[in-house]
Design brief:
The complex is a heterotrimer of chains A (303), B (289) and C (279). Helix content of chain A is 40%, strand content 20%. By secondary structure, chain A is α/β, with parallel strands linked by helices. Chain A has two domains: 40-129 and 265-301, Periplasmic binding protein-like II (D-Maltodextrin-Binding Protein, domain 2, 3-Layer(aba) Sandwich), CATH 3.40.190.10; 130-264, 3-Layer(aba) Sandwich (D-Maltodextrin-Binding Protein, domain 2). In chain A, strands 1, 2, 3, 4, 6, 7, 8, 9, 11 and 12 form a ten-stranded mixed beta sheet that branches. Chain A has a two-stranded parallel ribbon with strand order 5-10. In chain A, strand 6, helix 9 and strand 7 form a beta-alpha-beta unit. The radius of gyration of chain A is 24 Å and the shape is elongated. Chain B folds into two domains: 2-42; 71-288, MetI-like (MetI-like fold, Orthogonal Bundle), CATH 1.10.3720.10. Chain B has a two-stranded antiparallel sheet. The N and C termini of chain B lie far apart (51 Å). Classes of the chains: A alpha/beta (303), B mainly alpha (289), C mainly alpha (279). Chains in contact: A-B, A-C, B-C. Chain A binds chain C through residues 22-30, 39, 41, 43, 45, 48, 51-52, 55-56, 58-59, 79, 81, 83-86, 98-101, 209-210, 212-213, 216-217, 296-297, and chain C through 50, 52-54, 126-134, 215-220, 224, 226-228, 238, 241-244.
Chain lengths: 303, 289, 279
């Protein structure tokens, strides 16, 4: 009986050890820049604003080439597989830090902590997006005014006012439904820095886990106000009304030359040098097809 | 000879796998505790549990779980409140009134209810319940504690019914014969004998349901609004612990305070469930005595 | 008078309760069927998602395959662990403390909320073990989640074996392993399989564990253990919460429901009929 127990314990320890032995260097098992077998997969994750665009471009890329060797002779004849996930810019940064994705999609500039954490930080600008302070076309404030100052926007989004008539006595007494991104969203950080400053967004605000969701909700509620991505809102033009901020209209020119204050870069971040396949896809993103899709989705391409 | 070898291999495999399974649990628990402990080096445990502000990425970060914990408790409480009357009624029916044939048809139906995935409950909640609440009560947005409570109530019903029916079948059995022989009406028997006798069973089922409700993630997340506010009204939005973890984990990099705080929230959830299960255990013991 | 009133009240209460419960259940299932049926088509089942934004058109084939793959991986792992544990308790364990201890462990694992398992799965499988977002990481996390179900069901199945035959077998000097394979297994095979199938169903419907370990917005059908996959529950969640396409959401929900109900039907017909003739 004793011998059996010993045998048993040894076996289980071996089992446990073998589980640990597969132990992480923490790199994604798929192809990596330093000469590991590239198995045809690229994984992007991050911003919910960028994700649909990247998926779209990836889809076109896959359909156009089929296998990697069609793209570049030096690459293996593997099926092109570009996987996209989402969750917010924060997810993208985290994934690159923890090496669980090849690229992180960010709809904001990378934070200092993120740059520090990412080994051999690389960044690629894809385009520019902006945050519109928008309401439903039937919203009372939207029908009355077309311009808000930064302070006014700040007041509306903070705890200071909770119903429309507290902001402007001529409006009704319905509650202000604030739509914001959750803390992982790129827009959250941008809005906080540019508009809110030290003032916190009201605790009553509805945190929507994706930009697309935010805009959908905005379109469905005349009492709501939120910051919508320029590109995403573009797809709902007829139902939304955007305010000028400090007199500046959120037009393409103003966004590009920086006069409109709440603009944000759309970037891809990664750690380390690009592999051949990654470079090929990146080139495709910046090519005519890629740029076209980026503008079709409503954003302003980097070129 | 061969037999001996196969026998040994078999024995070792079975035992080895069993030990692995046990180790897995211990490992998970130790892992979670370890990852959560970091929070407590930055935030005093009492502040963590009772702090009223959850803003882990502001400067300075504020990590207070009270609204989140209260949300979880409030949701489960509400769900129980809504589910118990129908659940007990259903159990009574199945146990005392229902003819055997019908019972056999109904049981699988209820079991299937238990097997419907959380997402689907959440989805139906989003497309049916939320618009309904918005229309019926003139709300600007249906996401609310109430919506979460309703969805949870429906989800825990099958578990409530299963546990309570079983308990009633066991305890009430002996009353049936006595009542019948004394000519007591079925309804009198139910009201005055079965219900009181199965009281402990009902409580046990309720506690089990609460535990289940507290761990539920998806369905709740989709209808509850996810604002980390104290649950002061059923129309308000709340953010229970599972939603907190699910929504914020994706953007909290390993090693940050936020990340450890989320693990800490997970630990708190586990401890609450442990507490609930202990109570359940002691009540079971009481029944058996 | 009091008695009649009591009887009436209780009757109403019971009647209302049952109606409420049955209506709720029937409503959920039928609602999905009614609204999802129109989305079902060969293209929907066999195409990948497309359209702008992704998911508004096309199909959900990769998600279907992903869900099946996750089910397969998790069930394999969970069955090994769960069946082994149940077997150990049935065949080998003579010590009551160990017996209760193991049962306690199983109960504890069953009690861990799926999101906490997902959290653990992320930190341990995805990052620490270097699996990345992958079918394997997701499958293993799911395996931990469903292992208690397999263990408990296998135990129940084993408890129903004909004790006399087993004892006779031992008395004749037949080893435990041999007894298991020749006597116990044939009797309990069906019940064990049905228990495993029920566990698979649970795994395929779960979202929280795979959200952080395997599921992505868009991927191809799974060809390797080390790549991320799409999964029906996660896809449904994304479609619904981001309001990408309600029609496709219904379709996805319906497909998921059909897979689950189909498996239940399979279990009910194929694996439980013996109940009537054996006891």
């Amino acid at each position: 009986m004793q011998r059996k127990t010993v045998l048993l314990v040894i076996c289980s320890m071996l089992l446990a050890l073998s589980l640990m032995a597969g132990c992480g260097n923490g790199e994604p098992a798929a192809g990596d820049a330093d000469g590991m077998e590239f198995d045809g997969e690229l994984f992007f994750t991050g911003s919910s604003t960028l994700a649909p665009t990247i998926s779209q471009i990836a889809d076109t890329f896959q359909n156009e080439y089929g296998t990697w060797d069609q793209v570049d002779d030096s690459l293996p004849a593997e099926d092109i597989e570009i996987n996209v996930s989402t969750g917010g810019s924060g997810v993208g940064a985290k994934a690159v830090i923890e090496n669980t994705a090849h690229f992180g999609m960010l709809a904001r500039g990378a934070r200092d902590e993120e740059r520090d954490e990412i080994e051999d930080y690389q960044e690629y600008l894809l385009g520019i997006d902006a945050l519109l302070v928008a309401v439903h076309k039937d919203n009372a404030l939207g029908q009355k005014r077309d311009d808000l100052t930064k302070e006014e926007v700040r007041t509306i989004f903070s705890d200071e006012v909770s119903s429309w008539n507290e902001f402007d006595p001529a409006l009704g007494d319905e509650e202000i439904v604030l739509l914001v991104r959750d803390v992982g969203g790129g827009a959250h950080g941008v809005f906080q820095n540019v508009i809110m400053g030290d003032v916190e967004v009201s605790v009553d605000a509805i945190e929507v886990p994706s930009m697309t969701g935010l805009v959908e909700r905005l379109v469905g509620n005349p009492l709501a106000i939120g910051y919508a991505s320029y590109g995403v809102a573009d797809q709902h033009q007829d139902n939304l009304v955007a305010f000028k901020v400090d007199g500046i209209e959120p037009s393409a020119e103003n966004i590009l030359d920086g006069t409109y204050p709440i603009s944000r870069p759309l970037v891809l971040v990664r750690s380390g040098e690009l592999s051949t396949a990654e470079e090929a896809f990146l080139d495709y993103l910046k090519s005519e097809t890629g740029t076209e899709i980026i503008s079709e989705m409503g954003f302003l391409p980097a070129n | 000879m061969w037999q001996k070898i196969t026998d040994n291999i078999f024995a070792v495999t079975v035992k080895g796998l069993t030990v692995t399974a046990v180790f897995i649990l211990l490992f998970i628990i130790i892992f979670i505790v370890r990852e959560s402990l970091v929070v407590f080096s930055e935030v005093a445990p009492l502040d963590f549990l009772l702090g009223r502000d959850w803003r882990p990425v502001s400067t300075p970060p504020r990590i207070g779980l009270l609204p989140i914990i209260s949300a979880s408790l409030a949701l489960s409480g509400l769900a129980l409140l809504l589910a118990l009357p129908a659940g007990i009624g259903c159990s009574l029916f199945l146990s005392q009134v229902c003819p055997e044939m019908l019972k056999r048809k109904l049981r699988p139906f209820i079991d299937i209810m238990a097997g419907i995935p959380s997402v689907i409950y959440g989805f139906v909640g989003v497309v049916v319940l939320l618009p309904f609440l918005e229309q019926a009560f003139q709300l600007s947005s249906g996401d609310s504690l109430l919506a979460g409570g309703i969805v949870l109530a429906v989800m825990i019903l099958p578990f409530l019914i299963a546990t309570t029916t079983e308990s009633m079948d066991n305890t009430a059995g002996r009353h049936v014969i006595t009542s019948k022989s004394l000519g007591v009406s079925r309804w009198y028997m139910i009201r005055n004998l079965v219900l009181p006798a199965s009281r402990t069973g009902i409580v046990a089922g309720a506690i089990l349901g609460t535990a289940r409700a507290m761990g539920e993630t998806m369905a709740v997340m989709m209808v509850v609004g996810n604002s980390p506010l104290m649950p002061v009204s059923i129309w308000g939005r709340v953010k229970p612990i599972p939603s907190l973890i699910a929504l914020e984990m994706g953007s909290a990099p390993l090693g940050t305070l936020h990340y450890h705080a989320l693990y800490g929230a997970g630990l708190v959830l586990l401890l609450i469930l442990l507490l609930i299960n202990l109570v359940f255990y002691f009540i079971r013991k009481k029944i058996e005595v | 008078m009091q008695r009649i009133l009591d009887g009436f009240l209780i009757k109403t209460w019971l009647f209302l309760s049952v109606t409420l419960v049955l209506t709720a259940a029937a409503f959920i299932i039928s609602h999905i069927f009614i609204h999802g049926w129109s989305s079902l088509s060969i293209e929907f089942l066999l195409d990948s998602p497309s359209g702008m934004p992704l998911g508004t058109e096309g199909g959900i084939f990769p998600a279907i395959m992903g869900t099946l793959a996750l089910g397969a991986v998790s069930t394999t792992a969970a069955s090994l662990l769960g069946a082994a544990t149940a077997l150990y308790l049935y065949l080998y364990c003579r010590n009551t403390y160990i017996n209760s201890g193991i049962r306690l462990v199983i109960q504890c694992i069953a009690g861990i909320p799926s999101i906490v398992l997902g959290l653990f799965g992320y930190t341990f499988f995805v990052v620490f073990m270097g699996m990345g977002y992958s079918l394997l990481a997701g499958g293993l996390t799911l395996a931990i989640m469903i292992f208690p179900i397999v263990a408990v069901n296998t135990e129940k199945a084993l408890a129903e074996t004909n004790k006399e035959q087993v004892l006779a077998s031992y008395a004749l000097g037949i080893s435990r392993a041999h007894t298991f394979f020749r006597i116990i297994l044939p009797q309990t095979k069906n019940d064990i399989v049905s228990g495993i199938l029920l566990a698979v169903v649970y795994a395929m419907g779960a979202t929280a564990p795979i959200m952080l370990t395997a599921a992505v917005l868009s991927a191809s059908a799974p060809t390797s253990l080390t790549r991320p996959v799409m999964a029906l529950p996660y896809h449904l969640y994304i479609l619904a919460s981001e309001r990408i396409s309600v029609d496709h959401a219904y379709g996805t929900a319906l497909v998921l429901l059909l897979i689950l109900l189909g498996t239940y039907a399979l279990v009910a017909t194929l694996f439980t009929r013996k109940r009537r003739d054996n006891r």
